[in-house]
Specification:
Elements: E1 16-21, H1 28-41, E2 46-50, H2 55-66, H3 72-96, E3 100-104, H4 107-116, H5 121-127, E4 136-141, H6 144-154, H7 173-195, E5 198-201, H8 206-224, H9 265-270
Parallel strand pairs: 1-3, 1-4, 2-3, 4-5
């Protein structure tokens, strides 16, 4: 890693940070929510953090999007501000308290999207140099056509920035979205090797993905121990309830289903 760039500083905290990444329609959010439910059932304190969710930039972002005022650089800086606020107020304090932090998108989203929008890759990595390196980062790899089908079947209308209309890929909203997501997908594939992201096959059944996810994080839970429950943050951040998956994706089973019921710490590590 280049000094002054993301990944050059490793901080050690009692807690664990698990991150999910992927293009829209990859199913990563459903998997993270199911993981949060299981971890809480196992007695671990869990804090959930979501991309672009800090209240300090919400009004500015909404106004900029509504009036199509955001340049690629402005967009990048707003997201970095949002992220910095969550790191300072939510992520790091929770890790220091020994909690498990689950992040739905992390710095890698900026590394992919901002670069596609034309922002310099080295500049973006330096911008996020303060970010803690996660315990594990999972990339839910999804074929473009599968992801597009999931998103477009469940959205009445795509939004301007969501479709990448700000960078002039196409005058057609859906075609712009397709081209934008294809470029982001290519960037993610580069990030896998650069940062050692753990690749998940997001075309597999929801239940099987969840088993693999639990098995992957199990060694980090074993070393964490259960004593962290006595050092919980003052307020746990609740993960959103799993949304109904698009028609092309299987519906996650309820917590009462054997497929997604708690596997037990050792069983998750032994899952096939």
């Amino acid at each position: 890693m280049t000094p002054g760039s993301y990944g050059s500083i490793h901080a050690s905290y009692p807690g664990r940070l698990f991150v999910v990444e992927g293009i829209d329609g990859s199913g990563k959010s459903t998997q993270l929510t199911l993981l949060a439910q299981w971890l809480r059932g196992e007695g671990y304190p869990v804090v959930f953090s979501e991309w672009n969710s800090s209240p300090i930039v919400r009004a500015t972002t909404s106004r900029g999007k509504r009036k199509a005022m955001l340049t690629p650089l402005t967009f990048s800086l707003i997201h970095a501000t949002d992220f910095s606020d969550r790191v300072e107020r939510e992520i790091v304090p929770s890790l220091k308290a020994g909690a498990i932090v689950l992040a739905d998108r992390y710095v890698y989203t900026a590394f992919a999207r901002d670069v596609v929008r034309g922002v310099d890759a080295r500049w973006v990595r330096a911008l996020y140099r303060f970010a803690p390196v996660p315990t594990m980062a999972f990339y839910f790899r999804t074929p473009l056509e599968v992801a597009l089908r999931r998103i477009l079947s469940g959205r009445p209308k795509l939004k301007y920035y969501e479709a990448g209309m700000d960078i002039g890929l196409s005058a057609d909203l859906q075609e712009s979205y397709r081209l934008f997501q294809a470029k982001i997908l290519a960037e993610y594939d580069e990030l896998v090797s650069e940062f050692g992201l753990t690749v998940m096959d997001a075309t597999r059944k929801v239940e099987m993905q969840q088993k693999i996810l639990r098995r992957a994080i199990q060694p980090h839970l074993d070393s964490l121990g259960t004593s962290v429950t006595n050092r919980m943050p003052a307020r746990e951040s609740a993960a959103p309830a799993p949304s109904a998956p698009p028609a092309a994706a299987p519906r996650p089973a309820s917590s009462a289903s054997p497929a997604t019921a708690p596997l037990g710490r050792r069983a998750a590590g032994d899952a096939s």
